[in-house]
Design brief:
heterotrimer; A mainly alpha; B mainly alpha; C mainly alpha; A: mainly alpha; Four Helix Bundle (Hemerythrin (Met), subunit A); 6 helices; about 75% helix; disordered N terminus; B: mainly alpha; 18 helices; about 60% helix; globular; disordered C terminus
């Protein structure tokens, strides 16, 4: 790291193209996508808020919540954002080993979160609340289900990045790819921050 | 770049001799694997035009059925399918993709770029469009086409009232189309913001690229909303949820709210590109700058913003209460302001200009006149008491056909005539074009003008027939005759295209003496667009190179356009463009497979679709956007300093890597650019 | 130092160029310990939220929960997603999405009578 050769930049590494804003295309695209996702999750969250008290029959989510359990789940997802940030910092320093460690940790924590979701959902279903029991349960499962799918796709992406790192395809010059993956992951986390408060905690 | 017929590069994951990376741009495979924005633009345009003919036939069927009272051409059930598909086709399979054709072809050229930010994603968006459209129409053979109206109101579209698979095809078809559109929107937004030539500040950008940017922002933020609405409807139909079922606490109005939050921005998505086209055509054929270019830009942005605040005007008769209704009535009236500003600016562009009434100009003027009429009827809808009478009648049908056909379609045709010589190297025949215009505009007014009267006489929408003593007979017949006149006009256009293809004369790169950058490329435009990325110093930069004004303000020609037409690449130039790929098509195939599996509950089919989609995306992500040149081919030897193989074999996470110039180019270094914030 | 698994000479000089670029772009990046500290703060906020859940339900608790949620949201977006230090273009793009979403959906909920002012 200390020995930086005094090469005149014949051209930049391919993730540092000259763009009109100075931001890479990929990063700009990810933020545009996340802006779009705000509208997506906004619709789902509003549907839940609309239908929160409209159930006609059957158990509603509020009656079945296990808040301590979900709090732990939320904490796990929150910590996965930490490990993701550490992964990005690692590759920005050129530390492949720590990159893989933190990416794997993030994927692991994400999987624990998903495991917790699956456990929670199956327990609800066993206790008589499915997606079609009433409008509240429907809105609940659709919202958390969409979120869960996003997390799962994120985990697949993280594991792919670990694999690519092992094969040497993520040099320090390509750190931005991890950063962009991190943006997606953090977004998924902040959606959960909203869901946890609005769906679980608000009385 | 020379076309090589022998594929050389390999996709990294797959076994040898199976699925090599395509290299050729020739022939059928060349089109199927293309990632060139110009070819993709042509694909969008041709496909959209074919759907226009299909949607037009649906319109003729409707008009035949309604020409006389107690019509017997179509049964009520079939009629429902025909009008639903007419609307769905025209909105999602004609106007949106035809606009996309122009975005794709023109935006990179107008901003001085070599391609869009994500060429393979661009191809993927096209394939999603084509496959989504085919999927929608496959319903014809699989039990019946969607029949719930293009806006699919719940609970009519619920499984109770629509028990067949018709609506399922509608839901999944729109979901597939939506993914393609959203991806395309993000792609074009990044391209426009990030890949402008040096000196091309946003307020020097051609107005079409501006309107395209606004429309794509609208797409980016509006599509997710209809996506959720469609998912909720799908869950109600397939999994027994109750989102729109009042008996279980659900609310059908939620469907309407979500649909129209998408639906209103959607109509601006449908019209802004055509407005951009008109704003490009008029200055060229008036030989005057666009009147008030910054105002035109800002009014476009204003329409984009305000378009989010008016959606409830589609729901004035739903019973939402006086507060909501009044608020949205006011916002709807307000949005007429930026729109009206544009009309005046177009008039200002024409005023005092040296007008040439070529076909593009005819269509542009036609747009302004017809759109104004449609806008005026729109303003009448903003008044809630008036709308309570107008809503759900033919008066509304009149309004939206005036703005969408008289507006968007005429504008798009104008664009076809205007850019045809740039895209295909020949001008469409002027005489036939003039005939096309006049026949169309007469037929159009005959078809849709009477709808205002019929609507105010009380004729409701979506009825498959009417009694003979309603007093509607005359205008319905007039309208039907008009619709066949439109058809005749369209046939003239098709004949024009064919005649031009067979006998048309080649024209030079700047046949209209135009103003914007795309006209400096040689004909046909090479795949790399610009041999040297132009440096821009003015808005309408090309015009400024050719003309100046003397002391009295008169135009003085200072240079011939031929001086600025760029040369073609030779063997010494080494421009590496992104390589063709079939993964976008493979990935896109996954989508309808998933959909068929879901509709028929063959879940292993859906699983296979998921594997195809994800596998395609994965392979796409892992292949480099540009294959390293083949060391055995001396024509492809990279110049000094070109990216080396090792780096190119790296990750392209989102299929990115914009096409740049390698050394030996004249791209100015970052310091000399006018960087916008 | 850097942990390559590739050994091509040409790639190494590319690396050195990119290291320089990466170093430049690291100005303004929080250190690892800062991230841990932020995560700790988020955990504390979450604990407070959960604590509030067990209090008596009221509008005040609901509002406080929403405020805490917004704070956590901003911290993750600003620091973990680095938006605080990145180009204003990105910030505007994202804020546009958020503001649009919140405004539109609040209006819908008002129309359904779910929110009252």
């Amino acid at each position: 790291m200390a020995e930086i050769a005094a090469h005149p930049p014949a051209h930049h590494a391919d993730t540092h193209h000259q763009t009109s804003t100075g931001i890479s295309n990929e990063k700009l695209a990810m933020w545009a996508f996340l802006g779009s996702e705000c509208m997506l999750f906004g619709a789902l969250i509003s549907t839940y808020i609309l239908y929160r008290h409209k159930a006609v029959s059957g158990p509603t989510p509020h009656s079945l919540y296990d808040i301590p359990f979900t709090s732990v789940s939320s904490f796990v997802l929150l910590m996965s954002s930490l490990s993701m940030a550490l992964a990005v910092a690692a590759i920005q320093r050129g530390d492949q080993r720590r990159l893989r460690v933190w990416l794997s940790t993030t994927a692991l924590l994400g999987s624990i979160f998903i495991g917790g979701q699956i456990y929670e959902f199956t327990s609800f279903i066993r206790r008589g609340m499915t997606i079609k029991t009433n409008v509240t349960s429907g809105a609940f499962f659709v919202l958390t289900g969409f979120h869960g799918v996003h997390v799962t796709l994120g985990i697949i992406m993280l594991l792919s990045l670990v694999s690519l790192s092992i094969r040497g395809k993520i040099p320090q010059s390509k750190a931005e790819i991890i950063e962009i993956a991190g943006l997606y992951w953090h977004f998924v986390d902040i959606v959960w921050i909203i869901i946890f408060t609005v769906v679980y905690l608000i009385p | 770049m020379a076309a090589i017929s022998e594929p050389v590069a390999r996709s990294p994951l797959l076994p040898e001799r199976f699925m090599k990376r395509p290299k050729s741009t020739e022939g059928f495979m060349g089109w199927v694997t293309t990632i060139d924005h110009k070819r993709i633009g042509i694909l969008y345009g041709v496909t959209a035009f074919i759907f226009f003919l299909v949607g037009g036939c649906e319109a003729l069927l409707i008009r035949l059925q309604l020409a006389t009272p107690n019509g017997k051409i179509l049964t009520a059930q079939v009629y429902n399918q025909v009008f639903t598909m007419h609307g769905t086709t025209m909105v999602f399979l004609v106007i949106m993709p035809m606009s996309a054709a122009f975005f794709n072809y023109l935006v990179p050229l107008q901003i001085g770029a070599r391609d869009v930010a994500f060429p393979r994603l661009n191809a993927f968006s096209y394939w999603m469009f084509l496959l989504g459209g085919l999927f929608l129409y496959s319903s014809l053979l699989l039990g019946g086409m969607p029949n719930g109206g293009w806006f699919g109101y719940a609970p009519n579209t619920s499984i109770t009232y629509s028990p067949g698979h018709n609506i399922d095809f509608w839901v999944f078809g729109l979901l597939i189309l939506g993914v393609g559109s959203t991806a395309s929107a993000a792609n074009l937004i990044v391209t426009t913001i990030n890949m402008r030539a040096p000196g091309m500040r946003l307020l020097r950008m051609p107005i079409f690229s501006w309107m395209s940017l606004v429309a794509n922002f609208l797409l980016l933020f509006a599509m997710p909303v209809i996506t959720i609405a469609l998912f909720l409807l799908m869950f109600d139909r397939q999994w027994g949820t109750h989102f729109f079922d009042p008996l279980a606490g659900g609310d059908p109005v939620l469907w309407q709210q979500l649909f129209w939050i998408f639906g209103h921005p959607e109509v601006y998505i449908l019209v802004l590109p055509a407005m951009g086209i008109v704003s490009e055509i008029m200055p060229v054929f008036a030989r005057k700058p666009l009147f008030g270019y910054p105002v035109m830009v800002f009014s476009g942005i204003a329409i984009g913003f305000m378009g989010w605040g008016v959606w409830v005007h589609h729901m004035f008769a739903v019973g939402l209460g006086p507060v909501a209704t009044a608020a949205f009535s006011v916002s709807t009236m307000l949005i007429a302001v930026p729109t009206g500003v544009k009309i005046f600016n177009w008039l200002g562009t024409l005023w005092g200009g040296s007008l040439r009434f070529r076909t593009p100009m005819l269509f542009a003027i036609g747009f302004v006149l017809m759109f104004t009429i449609g806008g005026l009827s729109g303003v009448t809808h903003a008044l809630v008491p008036a709308d309570r009478q107008q809503t759900d009648t033919y008066y509304i049908v009149a309004h939206f056909h005036y703005v969408l056909f008289g507006g968007s379609i005429l504008g798009l045709f104008g664009g076809i005539y205007y850019w045809y010589p740039k895209i295909f190297g020949k001008k469409l025949d002027e005489r036939l074009g003039t005939w096309h215009f006049w026949v169309t505009i007469i037929g159009f007014n005959m078809t849709f003008g009477p709808f205002h009267i019929l609507g105010l006489q009380g004729m409701p929408r979506r009825i498959y027939t009417y009694a003979s003593n309603m007093g509607w007979n005359l205008w319905n017949m007039v309208s039907t005759i008009g619709s066949f006149i439109i058809a005749a006009g369209t046939l003239i256009f098709i004949y024009n295209v064919r005649k031009t293809d067979q006998h048309g004369e080649q024209v030079g790169p700047d046949p209209w003496d135009a103003r914007t950058l795309e006209w400096i490329t040689p004909n046909p435009t090479p795949d790399y667009n610009y041999i040297e990325v132009p440096v821009v110093t003015h808005q309408d930069d090309f015009w400024h190179k050719k003309y100046a004004e003397d002391e009295t303000g008169r135009l003085v020609k200072v240079a011939d356009s031929a001086q600025f037409i760029q040369r073609r690449a030779t063997a010494d130039d080494h421009i590496h463009m992104p390589s063709p790929s079939f993964w976008p098509l493979v990935a896109a195939f996954g989508a309808p497979i998933i959909a068929y599996g879901q509709i028929y509950h063959f879940y292993f089919v859906s699983a296979f679709g998921v594997v195809t989609l994800l596998g395609g995306l994965y392979a796409w992500g892992l292949e480099p956007s540009t294959e390293p040149p083949d060391p055995d081919d001396e024509h492809q030897q990279p110049a000094v300093g070109a990216p080396v193989a090792g780096e190119l074999a790296g990750v392209g996470a989102s299929g990115g890597g914009d096409p740049t110039l390698t050394s030996g180019d004249t791209f100015k270094p970052a310091g000399t650019e006018d960087l916008d914030d | 130092m850097t942990d390559h698994t590739t050994t091509e000479v040409t790639e190494e000089s590319e690396e050195e160029l990119a290291v320089e670029a990466a170093l430049e772009s690291r100005h303004g990046h929080p250190s690892d310990m800062t991230y841990v500290g932020i995560a700790f703060g988020l955990a504390v906020l979450t604990a407070i939220e959960v604590g509030l859940y067990y209090l008596k339900a009221s509008t005040e608790t609901a509002l406080t929960l929403l405020v805490l949620m917004a704070i956590k949201f901003s911290i993750v977006v600003g620091f973990f997603m680095h938006l605080r230090f990145d180009s204003p273009v990105l910030r505007r793009l994202f804020v546009l999405g958020i503001v649009l979403a919140v405004t539109i959906y609040v209006i819908i909920l008002l129309m359904f009578g779910i929110l009252h002012f």
